[in-house]
Each structure stands twice: as structure tokens, then as C-alpha cells.
Write a structure and sequence with these properties.
The structure holds two protein chains of two kinds.
Chain A: H1 2-17, H2 20-23, E1 31-33, H3 34-37, H4 41-56, H5 64-72, E2 76-78, H6 87-90, H7 101-117, H8 126-151, H9 188-205, H10 217-231, H11 234-245, H12 261-273, E3 280-284, H13 297-301, E4 320-322, H14 324-329, E5 340-345, E6 348-353, E7 367-371, H15 372-386, H16 394-404, H17 414-424, H18 431-437, E8 442-443, E9 458-459, H19 472-477
Antiparallel strand pairs in A: 2-4, 3-7, 5-6, 8-9
Helix pairs in contact in A: 4-7, 4-8, 7-8, 8-9, 9-10, 10-11, 10-15, 11-15, 15-16, 15-17
Chain B: H1 2-17, E1 23-31, E2 42-45, E3 51-53, E4 59-64, E5 70-74, E6 81-84, E7 93-95, E8 105-109, E9 112-115, E10 123-127, H2 128-131, H3 139-142, E11 150-154, E12 163-167, E13 180-183, E14 186-188, E15 211-217, H4 220-223, E16 234-239, E17 245-260, H5 269-284, H6 289-298, H7 313-317, E18 321-333, E19 337-349, E20 356-369, E21 374-388, H8 399-405, H9 432-438, E22 440-457, E23 462-481, H10 486-489, E24 494-517, E25 521-544, E26 559-583, E27 587-598, E28 607-618, E29 631-645, E30 656-664, E31 672-680, E32 689-702, E33 707-726, E34 735-758, E35 762-779, E36 786-787, E37 790-794, E38 801-804, E39 806-810, E40 817-820, E41 826-827, E42 837-841, E43 846-856, E44 859-869, E45 872-874, H11 876-881, E46 937-939, E47 942-953, H12 956-962, E48 966-980, E49 1002-1012
Helix pairs in contact in B: 5-6
The chains are: A mainly alpha, B mainly beta.
Chain lengths: ~475, ~1000
């Protein structure tokens, strides 16, 4: 009797105490360990998907990288009754700028991982490997381009002595501390060279199978054209834009049947109300499960209702509205102005743009990153500056854009092209960078004042606030990083 | 029923006492305190089998064999007494109250109990009596102010919400600061495990009225036996158990209501419109579009400003919340088997609409002696809790915040009685009343905590104890957003169903050796092994697009939007040994060591050593002290040792790849492929934080228990703090966890109990405690004085220091806000690099409590004050509500009536100015008039009458005719009175981010009755 108890209890105790170190081994299930993650093709596929996922993030193309440049520029402002978001950006407050450093390098590191492991994993067909590598090179180039635009001056407009861009890191960081490096900033020229190199590599890898929702050959040509335009390589810009336009990806929406202003307006609206835009050379696809809800772009530009026009009672903030001088820049009869929806918010009459009208689903749309119209305007500007007519004359391209908008042709000048570019690409995050690459001052609106704004102000091109502040922690932590002037 | 039970137990006693007798002894047992007869006292023969029990009149009859020389009298609440049988056949006995005994027992973990005089470590104890009938949902809340050095703060007043408990200050920056809770031997989870509802306290599963005692182990000597889990202190909770004797049944209930402690005072519509118009006029001029369109929109329909109606939103969302609590418990047993059965039903409706808490729980504790050598024991608690909550701080749908910020001229209802959703301003379309009434945010928690052990006496001095425990928690959370309004409108309704499941298994195996050598060398040794594993899973499904508002379940949605889940686990295992030796209860020596491991740590530091030692000297036992009659007990003790803090993420030390969203896999389709991305870099060197504590104290007991107390000092240094070492962001990672920081808490603790007056009918007792704690950060990352640029965490300063601008008030000439610059000169522009300074910190300098209890005959009056002194609080509500018209889309506090309006006026609130940033005066780049400064930090000191209760125990002679053992009726108030300079809602809300639209705490009035059968 007595012995049986002892044996039983001791046995239980022994069972519980045996092999202690092993007892403490646990395995995460939500995550997998690094040793197995990138051994197979699926791992690399997943890593590439995460690159797109990061582009979709609210901090990047999901909202901020489109909204913030619009607010920093002369295009948009935060209305009086607002949710306290981006008020400082609207006022160009010191250090209220684009914040892409951390998110950008996280994407770059993963793109580096794709480039490394796509060569090592098993089970990847040669064709699939080319596509995935092409996507990685393209996205790495896109992120470096966005970083260098934000943290460095345009190569054509460098303010004397401030020629630094961003650090170039091309190695995958996977081990601590061995892989951790403390780089210094490369020059703007070096970064542009790297971007061009990556895009040229991508051009050799990609085809158009996955256009427009994933990266394609057409998208690589289009981005290459955009980069060339920013770098002042006019012939390149015109050539690559022309290649993108003739790739068959994306359609210029201008149906022959659209003869009246009303029909033209309706046709133009389809660019933004179609679930997948007919004009897209590259767009970020969103499904309902990926919606950022009220943190999305649509929510910031308007308030939407399912199946109903926008209204104050709809979902979203509707905090950003065009500045008066942008509204004034629309010519009479421009059907693009029909995308502005008049509403009274608080006691203030404002306009909500309907470029992201939550047409695909509640509070989300696909986000157009490269549209055919941009390529026409790029080809027009590059040809004009280059004195060439690659693909078409600048006048023809400019007319194409204007006629579709219900406007009469106007003689081509650089100002006319840039003005058309402002209107056509308004609210899509282009204006600020176009001002910077042309070395222009920013004229904040002179009539209706944004909340908290300094009225009638012009921010000179040399104002240090036009370059983003490198995160303070980065400068503290990596002494090799020089902060931008003025911060 | 009662009679049935009585006869059942009478039968049991008869059964065990059916023996041959030679002599019959009778008598009456009375209590020493009140002289009243005590029913249900167990009377046993010593050295033979046989027992009896006293009746309702306290009388007993027992038959005694000639070989029996003594009788043992025992009863719950009284000290057992052994009495020799003399010649008389009548033996009248008086029993002493248990609570008056010096031999207070302290539960110190792993089945160990020590007399308080023998404890060498630092512990504080409260008994179940001190916390019973408090209208709180969880025992951690009841600890507030009762124990020296234990600071309890709330982050939400939602009924059943989790709270923060800090023992001897904040010891960690990134690992947890909560103590380890051990309930009947099981290390249980505390805190909040909810995901989509606001807050649920895992400790609220335990009915506070089931608790026998609660002991806090504060120093290393006491807590080292818990090794890497002990650094934040250990709270050991023991529940009530059965006792040998007649079954006692207690029925108790209290009901009452709760209400706001104080409500913020808000502007009415005319005042608010006047303020807004001034703001526009000052910015744009009184003829501007802004001014006139505001006027035309809000005033013109009513003719004049004074005619604009005011709608009291805060009042509309307030209610008098009902509190109800019902308890039934029975405890009793015989020599072999004892039981405690408890049942509880408790509900509380919050003082804000749409919030409530209800709990049903069952407690079963059984002890059984199988043989002389083998004992079994089990403790089980089953509970189900339902909570309706609202959105938390900051959210639009947070009722208590949005109802205040809503513009007062917005009607709550339309003329037809429906909810008004045209609400211009910051919260348009969010009618919080509608949201609270119709939308759903509900959590149902089912929890089972069970443990059991077998104890086997191998030799007389050596016991083996094998203990197992399970703590199982399941939370089902349902949310529903009505498609007709609010968040649900844009998506045609949305719903979610979440399920959290936490399984926590433990076992302890211990050998305990207790022996007294030569009558003076007392030795107690325990060696053991402790293992714990915990697995937590979570799944969530959400959908949108509902056929109509009548459908509220996730399955009715047309589009599934989220299917997510998580799995996480950790395990700890430790070997420990503790030896306590004393020489003749005079000199004490104690040593503890634990070799402890955790799966959370890096491969190279899975295990570590946690040693501690203590000495103690009972001076009162010395011969030369024997003559000092006023000293009953005097003890000096000291301890030193190390404990660990392993409360970090379960997989923080590993390199991990996690799912990272999805993206479409084709150019034109919609099929999604999963993303995968590195989420964490490995750090194989990651280890626990280490707390090394020195503790010295003097315990005294004077004038035969009339004055007793403790004076203690401690110095606790937490080293190897886990800090996020920044990585260059260009690496693609932002930080990696390292063991680098160092922080110190040191202070004094005083506990004093005095029995001021004691006569037969009257007594007055005072219990006081006060703790002084000083925190200082000694080291952060190498070469850095701030943690990641955060001035609140700086070397040589207390954690949560406040580094901000100093307000210089308002320029009386033109109403602009002014600050002092770094040189003490007036400035209108805050310069972050020169103008800020340290103005204090958020940690209280002193905390404590004071209880006075007066008893007169059966009447008792008790008042418990709790206080906190010397901390700053960020009044973040003020930041939103005292903007003087900087924003015109939300209501403001009445304090804005003191705003600057006329030149020469001296006031603290600047002139109304739309946008807040004054423009174009002398080319100065003005800072916003409500920019952060010391104006928004307030002294958070307070003293609060936490509870006051008046009770009456009906005289025993009245009860005996009703066959009742005891009846007590009482009235009680909670949080009735507060003295504070703090202007916000409640100074008790103390956290780094400040007081921001928190669901406020409540005050509460209850009346109750306890009946003992």
C-alpha cells in the first residue's frame, strides 16, 4: 500500500523532471525560423509578395506617400474641420515631411533577400526566377528612387554642397551582428546610377505576363522613363516612355463615342471608377481583406457610402481638399474638374476629389502607380526639352491629353506641359516632386487658408524644409549618416 | 434545507463517535470577546476516538472513556483549545478569537506556511476579512492602499477592467512590471487577454469573497524560490478551505449603485459658439467668410446666440449603474475530510451606458486525509464572466470621450425620436448614444483554475508533495457594427468573432524536511522542481455586408474580411532549494537557491542561478529582554539576493519569418498569395533581467499586541534590463533586444497597527501603511543618456521623467501664450533644443493607506483612506478641452470662460485663435497656443476615502431563537470623497500617456447583509 503510493508519486515526479533542456524547447507556429524559411521556392515567392504588401502599406503608397507630397505642395490642404492628421504637413512645419526611411530600407532588405535566395532555393523554374528577380530589382529601384527624391535634391537642381542622397545597401541582412553595417550616404548621382542599373537588369528579366497588377516589362520601361525625366536624360526619358506606351499594357481612355462634355466626363471617370484602371501600366491591387479602412487613401480624400454618392455621413475622414490655386488652375470646360465633389464640412465649403472614390469596395481602390497619361506627358516633356519627336511630337501628346479633357489645343511650351501634368496627375502624389525637379518655389494657396497655415506664403526652393529629415535615431545611432541641412 | 444539512452532519458525528463511554461531560462554549455562545464548535477526545459538536446555544454533551484526560475544542475563527478534564462533569469553555493571535501564519509558496515571527523575508499580508464585500470585481483592485509598497493604478474604469500593480516601483522598461500571481499554488495569468473588446481582468474569475488571505512576497529572500519569475514580487493568494467542525453556511448579498466620481464641466452652446466666433474673429476678422459662415450655419436658424439650444451628451450617456452581489458558501468537515463550497453571482452596470460586467463562479476546495501519512487536497474555481464594453481611449466610438467632445449644439435625437447622425464637428455621424445602445462589443470569459496535490509523509520529518495545476481561460469576443450608422455604414454592417484560449499547466514536486534538534535547533528544508508551460491560441473571423441590421453574427456577413489567428507558447522549469534554520526561535538563517530556465531566452542563456539569503534576530527572545514587559516581540531581519524577470515576448530571442500580408498572384485576377518576411533577428545571448535586492527591517509588537508594525528599507537594483538597441535602419531592422540597462528602486516601508482603545464594549483600531520609493535609471545603452531620444527615460533620472517647456502664462497685452526659453526670458516660440527642462516625474514619492475601525457592541464603523503623493500627471484631456477655440469642432471645458478677452487681463488661458498658432505679429514664428508645456502636467497627489462602511452585528441572543449563527447588516461607500489639486477626471489614472478620454472610475454605494447559519 504504502510503497505503491511512493512509487506512483516518484514516477510522476520523474516524468515531469526528466530532460530539462529539452523540456524548454518551444516552436513558434505563427512564424517559422529563418533556417527553413528560404529553403524552398515558396519562401522566395512569399518574400516577393511581402514587397508588394509593403508598397500597399498606409505609410507608403497605401496613403502617405501620395497624400503627404500633395499637402507639402501647392495642390492640397487640410480643411478646417479635420481629424488632426497631417495638419503639420499641410503647413510645411519643420520636420513634417515624407517619412520613408525605415519602411523603405525594410523593403530594400527583403528585395536583397529575393535577389540572393532566388539563386539558391530549389524548385524555382527559370522563367519564374526571372519574373521574381525582375520584380525585386524593379521594387528596389522604385524604393531607392522614392528615397532619393525625399532625402536628396534632384540631380538637376542640387543646392550647392548638398549632393548627398541615401546609402546604398545591396546585401541581405539576416544575422546579428555579422550582417549589420553602418553605411554613409551615397551621392545623389551614385543612387541614380544604382536605380538605372537595377531597372536595366529588370528590363532584361521581365515580360508583360503579370501586368498591370504586378511588375511587368512595360512598368520597368515606364519607371525607367520617369527616372530619366527626373535625371534630365531627355532622350532616354522619351525613348523609354515611348516603349512603355507601345507595350500594349494600359489603354488611353478616350472613346470615339465620347463627343459631348458629359460623355467625355463619364469616360474620363472610368479611369478611376473601374476596379482595375484601364490606364494602369502598374497598379497596386487591393482586395477587401487588404483594405486599410479609414487609414486608406480613399478615406482621407472623401467620405464614401456603399452605392451612394459621397456624403458627410459616409465613411472616412475627407480631410484633404484642393487648395484654391489648384482649383483655379482648371480651365473652363475641363471634364477633369468633374471629379471634384462639392460638400460643406463643418461650416466650410470644400471639394473632395473622386480619384479614389472607394469604387472597388468599402474604403478602398486599386492604387494607380503608373498611368498611360503620365507616359504621354513624360514623352511630351522629354521630347520638348530634347528638341525631338520620339514616338510623337510634344504638341501631339499635349493635344491628346487636352482634347480628351474637353479642352482646345494650346501651343506647346514647357509651362503648358507642366501645367497639364499638374492637372492630369493631381492628387496622385506627383506635384511636389515635379516642383522639386524643376527647382520651383511652392506657392501656398492665397485665398482659402488651410488651418494653421501661414497665409500668402511662398516656400523658396532652397528652404531646408523641402528635404525630408532623416530619422533622429538613425543619425544618433549611425555616426556615418550626415543629417540634412537645417535639421 | 438547513435542517437537512444539520441532521446530515449530526449523523456523521454520531457515526464517528459511536463508542463505549463511561462518563458524560456537558458544558457551554462561549466567545471571549462577546461572551456569546458559539454554535458548531467541534469537541474531540484527545487520544481516543469520539467527538461532539455544540448546538445553537453553544452547549455540548460528550461521552468520555476513563483513559481520556483532555478535550480539544476547535471552531472556525477561534483558537483551538485543549482542556484537561477535572473532576466535574461540567466544563464551560471560552475560546479566543483567532485573529488576536500573534501566531499569524504567512503562506510563502510551494505549500510552505510559516508563523509570522519565523519569516525572514519581507512579506505583507491582508486577510480575506479586509477585502470581503468590497464592490470590486477582482482581488488585485482590493489590494490598493492596504499593503506598504504595493501601488495599484487603473487604466480604465470599465467594470472588470485590468489594472496595474507595481510592487516597490517600476523595475523594468521593456519586460513586464506585473507581479507573479499564485492562487492556491498555481501561477495564474493576470492582466488583459482580450483582443477586440476593451479590457478584461484575468484575475476577476476569482470571487474576492472566497479569499482567505493574500500575501505579497517583496524581497529577494521571499521571492527567490520563484526564480526568474519573481523580480516584480509575488502575490500569493490562498482561498478559504473547509475546517473540522459543524458546517457553517454563509449567505451574503449586497446591492447598490455606482456613479461618476466627478463629471467634467463643459460649455453650453451659447458659450461654445461665442468662443468659436471669437477664435474666427481673432484669426480672420469678424467679417470673414469663416466667421459669417459659422454664424449663419449655427446661429441664424435660432435668431441669436443665446437661443441656441444645448444638448447634454455626457448626461445622456450617463446612468446610475446597478451593483448586485450574491454569495453562498458552506464550509465544514470532519477530521478526515474538509470542504469549502462557494457560489457567487455578481453584476455591475457601469455608470456609462452600454457597459456592464457579470460573473457567476463556483469554488470547491476539498482536503482529505487518506491515511496518517497521505493527504490529498484539491482547489477548483469555475467562473463565467460576461462583459459589455465600449471602445477604448482615443477612439471615436469611445463614449466617455466623444460624448464630451461632441459640439453641444448638436441634437442627440431627431424630432421624430430617431438618433441624429448629422453631427457637424469632429465626430460627425458618430452618435455615441446610438453606438452604445445598438452596436455590440461583448466578451465572455470562461475560466477554470484547478489544482491538487498529494502529500506523503515518508518519515515523520520528511514529506513529499506532488502538486499539479491547470489554469484554463477562454475568451469569446463578439463585435457588431450596425449597417445603419457609424463604422458599419460604409461596409453595410460588420461583425467579428474572436476566440482566445490559454492553457497553463504546472507541476511542483517537493521534498520537505522539518526537524527540531536538541529542542533548540529548528530546521526546515525544501527542495523541489517546478515546471510551467503555457499555450495561447487566438482566432478571429470578421465579415461585412449584412442582409439587415437584425443579423449580428459573423456568419451572416456576405464578405469575410479577416480570418486570423495566433499561437504562442512558453515554458519554464526550475530546481530550487530553501533552508530555514533557527536557534531557539532567536537567531534565524535562511538560504534559497533556484536554478531556473525559460524557453524565452537565447540558446546560450536558457538557465541561470537565483540565490538569496536572509538572517533575522528576535531580540525579544534574549534573556535580558524578558524583563522588558512592554515588548512582546522585536525582530531585526536582513536579506539579500537575486530574482529574475522573464516577462518578455515568447520568441524575442529567435530569428523569425512571419506571414506578411497578401498580394494578388496574377496581373488581372484576384487570387491572393501570402507574403512572408523576416520579422526578428536572433539574439542567442538574450537573457532575463536581474533584480538584486537588499532588504532590512525591524518588526515590533508592543504592549501585548496593542502596537505592532514594521519599519523596512530596501534597495533593489534591476540590471541586465532588456532594451531595444537601435540598429541602423538601413539594415532593414530597427532594433534588437539586448540586456544592457540598469535601474534602481529604493525606499522605506512602514506598517503600523495600533489598538488605541479596547474595552469590553468598545474598541478603536488603526492600521496604517506608508511607502516611500525613489526610482533612478543607472544605465541605458552604452554611452547613451537617453533611451532612443526619449527624455522620459534618462540616466540618473527616475523613469517617466517629464521634460517639457515652462509656461509663462498669457501676455496680458494681446492674449498670446508665452513660455520661458532656456535663459528664463519670455518667448513665443518653443525651441526644443534649448527651452525644455525636467519638471518632475510620474512616480509617486509616497503611497499608502490608513484604516480606522471602531467597534461599539455590535456596531462597527470603518474608514479607509488611500493616498498617493508627489507625482505629476499629464492631463491629456485638458490638452483637448482647454484649447480656447483653437479648434471649433468640439466642445470645451468651462475653464475656457477664463480665456483672455481684453487687454490688461491676467489669465492662464490664451486668447481664442482659430488654429492655435498666432500669425504675423512682429515676424515671430509662434508656437501653438496649446503646445505642450508644464501647463498640462499637474500635481497628481490625492487622498481618497476609498471605503467607508458602517455595519451592525445583530446580538447573538436575538439570533439563537432564529437558529442563526450571525447576522450582519452594513452600508458601504466606495470612492466617496477625494482631496486633490488635480483638475482632470481622476488622479488615480496614472500612466505615461496620461489621462486621455479614459472610462472613468466610479463611486459606489452599497447596502448588504451577511447571514451565517
Amino acid at each position: 500500500m504504502k510503497n505503491r503510493y511512493i512509487i506512483f508519486m516518484m514516477a510522476a515526479a520523474l516524468m515531469a523532471t526528466s530532460s530539462c533542456k529539452k523540456t524548454l524547447q518551444t516552436e513558434p507556429k505563427n512564424s517559422i525560423s529563418s533556417s527553413v524559411a528560404l529553403q524552398e521556392a515558396a519562401g522566395v515567392e512569399g518574400l516577393v509578395n511581402s514587397l508588394y504588401e509593403s508598397l500597399q502599406a498606409t505609410g507608403y503608397y497605401g496613403r502617405n506617400y501620395i497624400v503627404v507630397p500633395e499637402l507639402l505642395s501647392d495642390n492640397m490642404r487640410i480643411v478646417n474641420t479635420n481629424s488632426n492628421r497631417f495638419v503639420s504637413e499641410s503647413n510645411n512645419t519643420i520636420a513634417a515631411t515624407v517619412d520613408l526611411w525605415s519602411a523603405g530600407y525594410s523593403i530594400i532588405n527583403r528585395a536583397n533577400g529575393v535577389i540572393k535566395y532566388s539563386e539558391l532555393v530549389t524548385g524555382l523554374t527559370p522563367l519564374r526566377k526571372k519574373q521574381l528577380q525582375g520584380e525585386a530589382y524593379f521594387i528596389r529601384a522604385l524604393v531607392y528612387f522614392d528615397l532619393v527624391k525625399s532625402y536628396g535634391y534632384n540631380p538637376q537642381q542640387i543646392v550647392s554642397g548638398r549632393s548627398l542622397g541615401v546609402p546604398i545597401t545591396l546585401d541581405f541582412v539576416e544575422n546579428y551582428p555579422a550582417d549589420i553595417k553602418y553605411p554613409s550616404r551615397n551621392t545623389v548621382t551614385e543612387v541614380y546610377a544604382q536605380i538605372k542599373k537595377d531597372l536595366n537588369t529588370a528590363l532584361g528579366l521581365l515580360d508583360n505576363t503579370f501586368a498591370p497588377k504586378r511588375v511587368s516589362l512595360a512598368a520597368a520601361n515606364a519607371l525607367r522613363a520617369r527616372v530619366a525625366l527626373f535625371n534630365g536624360d531627355w532622350a532616354d526619358a522619351a525613348t523609354f516612355a515611348n516603349t512603355a506606351l507601345t507595350s500594349g499594357v494600359g489603354t488611353f481612355v478616350d472613346p470615339a463615342t465620347a463627343v459631348t462634355p458629359a460623355l467625355k466626363s463619364a469616360a474620363y471617370a472610368t479611369i478611376f471608377t473601374s476596379p482595375s484602371s484601364p490606364e494602369s501600366i502598374f497598379e497596386l491591387n487591393f482586395e477587401v481583406t487588404e483594405s486599410a479602412g479609414s487609414d486608406g487613401l480613399s478615406s482621407f480624400y472623401t467620405r464614401s457610402n456603399v452605392g451612394l454618392p459621397p456624403s458627410i455621413g459616409g465613411a472616412g475622414y475627407g480631410d484633404a481638399a484642393p487648395q484654391a490655386n489648384l482649383v483655379a488652375a482648371y480651365e473652363t470646360g475641363d471634364v477633369r474638374k468633374d471629379l471634384l465633389f462639392a460638400i460643406t464640412k463643418g461650416s466650410e465649403a470644400i471639394l473632395w476629389n473622386q480619384k479614389y472614390p472607394a469604387a472597388k469596395g468599402p474604403q478602398y481602390d486599386n492604387i494607380k502607380l503608373i498611368r498611360v497619361s503620365e507616359m504621354y506627358l513624360t514623352r511630351a516633356e522629354a521630347n520638348f526639352r530634347n528638341g525631338s519627336a520620339i514616338g510623337a511630337t510634344p504638341q501631339a501628346d499635349l493635344d491628346k491629353i487636352r482634347l480628351r479633357a474637353g479642352l482646345i489645343p494650346t501651343p506647346v511650351t514647357l509651362d503648358a506641359i507642366l501645367k497639364e501634368r499638374r492637372i492630369e496627375l493631381a492628387y496622385e502624389g506627383f506635384r511636389y516632386w515635379d516642383l522639386l525637379r524643376t527647382g520651383s518655389a511652392i506657392n501656398k494657396s492665397t485665398t482659402t487658408l488651410p488651418a494653421n497655415a501661414t497665409p500668402n506664403s511662398t516656400i523658396q526652393y532652397t528652404d531646408f524644409r523641402l528635404l525630408a529629415r532623416i530619422p533622429l535615431t538613425e543619425v544618433q545611432n549611425n555616426p556615418n549618416i550626415a543629417q540634412n541641412f537645417g535639421y | 434545507m438547513k435542517k437537512l444539512l444539520q441532521s446530515l452532519f449530526v449523523f456523521m458525528f454520531i457515526a464517528v463517535s459511536a463508542m463505549a463511554q463511561n462518563r458524560t461531560i456537558t458544558g457551554t462554549v462561549t466567545g471571549k470577546g462577546d461572551g456569546q455562545p458559539i454554535p458548531g464548535v467541534s469537541v474531540k477526545l484527545v487520544g481516543a476516538q469520539g467527538a461532539a459538536v455544540t448546538g445553537a446555544d453553544g452547549q455540548y454533551t460528550i461521552k468520555v472513556t476513563p483513559d481520556v484526560k483532555t478535550l480539544l475544542f476547535s471552531s472556525i475563527g477561534y483558537a483551538a483549545k485543549t482542556v484537561s478534564i477535572g473532576g466535574s462533569n461540567v466544563l464551560n469553555i471560552t475560546l479566543d478569537d483567532d485573529s488576536k493571535l500573534l501566531e499569524e501564519v504567512v503562506v510563502t509558496g510551494f505549500g510552505l506556511r510559516q508563523a509570522k515571527k519565523d519569516v525572514t523575508g519581507s512579506t505583507s499580508t491582508i486577510s480575506g476579512k479586509d477585502i470581503e464585500n468590497m464592490p470590486v470585481q477582482s482581488v488585485d483592485r482590493a489590494m490598493q492602499g492596504k499593503l506598504a509598497g504595493v501601488q495599484v493604478t487603473s487604466t480604465s474604469g470599465i467594470p472588470g477592467a485590468a489594472i496595474n500593480v507595481r510592487i516597490r516601483g517600476i523595475g523594468s522598461i521593456n519586460a513586464g512590471n506585473s507581479p507573479l500571481y499564485v492562487v492556491d499554488g498555481v501561477q495564474v495569468n493576470s492582466g488583459d487577454f482580450t483582443s477586440s473588446t476593451t479590457s478584461a481582468n484575468a484575475l476577476s474569475a476569482l470571487n474576492p469573497d472566497d479569499i482567505e488571505s493574500l500575501t505579497v512576497l517583496k524581497d529577494a529572500s521571499a521571492a527567490a524560490i520563484y526564480g526568474a519569475s519573481g523580480a516584480n514580487g509575488v502575490v500569493i493568494i490562498t482561498t478559504k478551505r473547509g475546517k473540522n467542525g459543524k458546517t457553517q453556511i454563509n449567505v451574503s448579498s449586497y446591492i447598490g449603485y455606482n456613479d461618476f466620481i466627478s463629471k467634467p464641466k463643459l460649455l453650453n452652446s451659447p458659450q461654445w459658439i461665442q468662443l468659436s466666433l471669437e477664435a474666427y474673429a481673432n484669426r480672420y476678422g469678424a467679417t470673414s467668410t469663416q466667421y459669417t459662415s459659422f454664424y449663419n450655419t449655427y446661429v441664424t436658424p435660432f435668431g441669436s446666440i443665446d437661443n441656441v439650444p444645448t444638448y447634454d451628451w455626457l448626461d445622456a450617456v450617463s446612468q446610475k449603474g446597478r451593483t448586485q452581489n450574491y454569495d453562498v458558501n458552506a464550509r465544514g468537515g470532519n477530521e478526515k475530510t474538509q470542504f469549502y463550497l462557494g457560489g457567487n453571482y455578481s453584476t455591475q452596470k457601469g455608470q456609462v451606458i452600454g457597459t456592464d460586467f457579470s460573473r457567476g463562479s463556483i469554488k470547491v476546495n476539498l482536503d482529505h486525509k487518506a491515511t496518517d501519512r497521505l493527504d490529498f487536497s484539491t482547489s477548483m474555481n469555475l467562473s463565467t464572466i460576461t462583459q459589455n464594453t465600449t471602445s477604448g481611449a482615443g477612439a471615436f466610438a469611445n463614449i466617455s470621450r466623444t460624448a464630451q467632445l461632441q459640439s453641444p449644439n448638436n441634437a442627440i435625437y431627431n424630432p421624430d425620436g430617431s438618433y441624429n447622425t448629422n453631427l457637424p464637428g469632429a465626430y460627425d455621424s458618430y452618435n455615441v448614444l446610438q453606438i452604445a445602445s445598438i452596436n455590440l462589443q461583448k466578451a465572455t470569459t470562461n475560466q477554470f483554475t484547478g489544482s491538487g496535490f498529494a502529500k506523503y509523509k515518508i518519515f515523520n520529518d520528511l514529506n513529499f508533495r506532488s502538486s499539479y495545476g491547470v489554469d484554463y481561460l477562454e475568451i469569446v469576443e463578439n463585435t457588431f457594427n450596425d449597417p445603419r450608422f457609424g463604422d458599419g455604414r460604409s461596409v453595410n454592417g460588420s461583425a467579428s468573432a474572436g476566440n482566445t484560449r490559454n492553457t497553463n499547466f504546472q507541476t511542483d514536486q517537493t521534498l520537505n524536511y522539518t526537524k527540531t534538534f536538541a529542542g533548540v535547533h529548528n530546521l526546515n528544508v525544501i527542495v523541489g522542481f517546478n515546471y510551467r508551460s503555457e499555450v495561447r491560441t487566438y482566432s478571429l473571423a470578421a465579415s461585412q455586408g449584412f442582409p439587415s441590421y437584425q443579423f449580428t453574427q459573423v456568419s451572416s456577413g456576405s464578405t469575410p474580411t479577416t480570418t486570423t489567428g495566433s499561437y504562442t507558447t512558453f515554458r519554464t522549469a526550475g530546481y530550487f532549494a530553501k533552508a530555514d534554520y533557527n536557534y531557539n526561535s532567536k537567531y534565524y538563517l535562511s538560504g534559497t537557491v533556484r536554478y531556473d530556465g525559460s524557453s524565452r531566452f537565447g540558446n546560450e542563456h536558457t538557465f541561470g542561478w537565483f540565490p538569496a539569503g536572509a538572517v533575522s534576530y528576535r531580540i525579544s527572545q534574549e534573556d535580558f529582554m524578558k524583563d522588558v514587559s512592554f515588548i512582546s516581540d522585536l525582530k531585526l531581519r536582513a536579506s539579500y539576493g537575486t530574482t529574475g524577470n522573464q516577462a518578455i515576448g515568447n520568441f524575442d530571442s529567435r530569428a523569425l519569418y512571419a506571414k506578411s500580408g497578401d498580394y494578388v498572384t496574377s496581373g488581372t485576377g484576384s487570387t491572393l498569395g501570402s507574403g512572408l518576411a523576416p520579422s526578428n533577428l536572433a539574439n542567442p545571448l538574450l537573457a532575463w533581467e536581474r533584480a538584486t535586492t537588499l532588504d532590512v527591517a525591524l518588526e515590533f509588537n508592543l504592549f501585548k499586541d496593542r502596537i505592532s508594525g514594521t519599519i523596512g528599507y530596501y534597495n533593489k537594483v534591476n540590471s541586465n534590463l532588456l532594451l531595444d538597441q537601435p540598429l541602423p535602419l538601413t539594415s532593414g531592422f530597427s532594433t534588437i533586444r539586448q540586456n544592457v540597462g540598469k535601474m534602481r528602486n529604493r525606499g522605506f516601508e512602514f506598517e503600523l497597527s495600533t489598538l488605541n482603545i479596547k474595552t469590553d464594549n468598545f474598541s478603536w483600531r488603526t492600521d496604517a501603511n506608508i511607502a516611500l520609493n525613489r526610482n533612478k535609471i543607472l544605465a541605458l545603452l552604452d554611452g547613451q543618456t537617453l533611451l532612443g531620444g526619449n527624455f522620459g527615460i534618462a540616466v540618473d533620472r527616475p523613469i517617466n521623467s517629464v521634460y517639457t517647456y515652462t509656461s509663462a502664462g498669457v501676455n496680458p497685452a494681446d492674449g498670446r501664450a508665452m513660455w520661458y526659453d532656456g535663459n528664463g526670458n519670455i518667448t513665443y516660440t518653443q525651441n526644443p533644443s534649448t527651452d525644455r527642462s525636467y519638471i518632475g516625474d510620474l512616480n509617486p514619492k509616497y503611497t499608502g493607506g490608513l484604516t480606522n475601525t471602531i467597534n461599539y457592541k455590535g456596531i462597527s464603523l470603518s474608514a479607509f483612506f488611500q493616498f498617493s503623493y508627489g507625482n505629476l500627471v499629464l492631463n491629456q484631456d485638458k490638452f483637448f478641452f482647454e484649447r480656447a477655440g483653437s479648434t471649433v469642432d468640439r466642445n470645451q471645458y468651462v475653464s475656457n470662460l477664463d480665456r483672455w478677452t481684453t487687454p490688461g487681463q491676467f489669465t492662464g488661458i490664451p486668447k481664442p485663435y482659430f488654429g492655435g498658432t498666432v500669425l504675423n505679429i512682429g515676424g515671430i514664428n509662434h508656437s501653438s497656443s496649446y503646445a505642450t508645456s508644464d501647463r498640462f502636467y499637474e500635481d497628481g497627489s490625492y487622498i481618497r476615502l476609498k471605503t467607508i462602511s458602517l455595519g451592525y452585528d445583530l446580538p447573538k441572543q436575538w439570533l439563537s431563537s432564529l437558529k442563526l449563527r450571525s447576522v450582519r447588516v452594513y452600508a458601504q461607500g466606495l470612492n466617496l470623497w477625494t482631496i486633490t489639486k488635480y483638475q482632470g477626471v481622476d488622479p488615480e489614472f496614472v500612466n505615461a500617456s496620461g489621462d486621455f478620454g479614459q472610462y472613468p472610475q466610479f463611486k459606489n454605494y452599497t447596502v448588504g447583509i451577511n447571514v451565517g447559519f
